[in-house]
Amino acid sequence: MTEASDDDLMRAYAAGDVAAFERLYARHQAGLYRFVRRLLAPALAAQVDEVFQDTWLRVVHARARWQPQGAAFGTWLYTLAHHRAIDLWRRSGREVSLDPDDGDAPFEPDGVPWHHWPAPANDAPHGDELAFWRRAGERLLRCLDELPLAQRSAFLLHHDDGLALAEVAAALEVGVETAKTRLRYAMVKLRTCMGAYLAPLQTAAGGAR
């Protein structure tokens, strides 16, 4: 049997099929929760469950009038979550810039550079390499938290949730070029941040690898 699409399930739910909603929830709960958690970052971590639940509540309330309008259900779901997250950031008193760039000043990551690279792969114990990559992943998440909200949203939707560029633009309700610009700035800043944290690996003779 062909798996029902999100749009078909939402139509069925609007017609009263509660099981259709349960299938939608099961299909999207993990990705949506991850998106909300990373969008809110540690600063608003205590509100992740609130935003996640409120997003689904909005789906429930909108079921009778829901109609696909050029965007898939999943894209619309992320739009709802993004709106709710922006509201929460603003209500917390933090400034939220939705411009593609957040100023002309060079980006400088918070914290101090990280110099704990492992020994060269052919010499390093396997456990040391694994420990390094775990720590590098933690640093990447920290760098991601430092991105402006608009750029973090675009990066998460495209690289974490796998939305195409046009879908990212639709979810964020911006033009494709704006979405592309936000992604470009996000990637530049992440590379800068990780470069500051991860100094080049040195050989035993002291030369850069």
Entry summary:
The protein is 62% helix and 0% strand. It has 209 residues and is mostly helical.
Helix and strand content put the structural class at mainly alpha
Low-confidence stretches: 201-209
> What Rg, in angstroms, do the CA atoms define?
20 Å
Report the count of strand segments: 0
- Bulk shape: globular
Estimate percent helicity.
55-70%
Summarize the biggest pleated sheet: none
Average of the residue pLDDT scores: 80
Measured between the Cα atoms of the first and last residue, the distance is 53 Å
* Series of H and E elements: HHHHHHHH
Count of helix runs: 8
What is the beta-strand fraction? under 5%
Notable characteristics:
mainly alpha; 8 helices; about 60% helix; disordered C terminus
Give your account of this protein's structure:
The protein has 209 residues and is mainly α. It has helices at 6-14, 18-40, 48-62, 73-91, 126-146, 149-160, 165-172, 176-197. The longest helix has 23 residues, at 18-40.
